[in-house]
Design brief:
Elements lengths: L3 E5 L6 H12 L5 E4 L9 H6 L7 E4 L2 E4 L1 H11 L10 H16 L2 H6 L17 H19 L10 H15 L6 H11 L2 H12 L10
Parallel strand pairs: 1-2
Antiparallel strand pairs: 1-3, 3-4
Helix pairs in contact: 1-3, 1-7, 1-9, 4-7
The structure holds glutathione.
The site of glutathione has 12 residues, from α1.
Length: 215
Amino acid sequence: MDKLTLYIGNKNYSSWSLRPWIALEGCGIAFEEVLIPFDFAAGNPRIREVSPTGRVPMLVHGDFKVWESLAIIEYVAELFPDAGLWPRDRRARALARSFSMEMLSGFGALRNACPMNMRRPVGALNLPEGVMEDVARIEAIWREARARSGGPFLFGAFSAADAMFAPVVSRFERYDIAVSADTRDYMAVMKALPAWKTWEAAALKETWVVPVDEA
Ligand SMILES: N[C@@H](CCC(=O)N[C@@H](CS)C(=O)NCC(=O)O)C(=O)O
């Protein structure tokens, strides 16, 4: 099979890149990564050269390109149906996709106020209106999924749904957002993943600074 190459942005900031990266890595799927840093005031022109949307993540498989984080995950899940990217049970899988779509299309207040920044010293911000509503909905999703599956991940074993929420784990931590004990427990489960540790260690070593993401 042709190799898979995942184009990503800075590990410190690129929340959309983290999603497919940790999904593939966490499910044991071999791929190469190409990191194109946002190291210019207006991004990096190389991203626009390779990606049809001018954005990352983007997956290259032979001469075929797939973009958008969730579309990449779906493509790889079809290539590797036994890798466990999605839960086996149909209803659990549908729920995992519903929650993942909510993440893809929503939670703008949290995403805008608290950009992912893994290097950020832990500290609270004055959060604008709407952020705590987003936080409450995310906590409810995590609680419902883990109660249904028995945990420790959202659908029992690590899956694409956990990958879609991975940047939120970092945001809750770095912006010291007040969350419940069960949310903290889930955050600890995610942070203990070898794939999480590998990404975070690389993020902490990066030196590129993107002022707009330094809230
Ligand atoms: N909906 C897209 C979002 C992709 C996205 O916004 N990527 C950002 C990085 S996290 C990007 O490439 N920005 C480049 C730029 O703005 O120059 C996805 O899910 O993949």
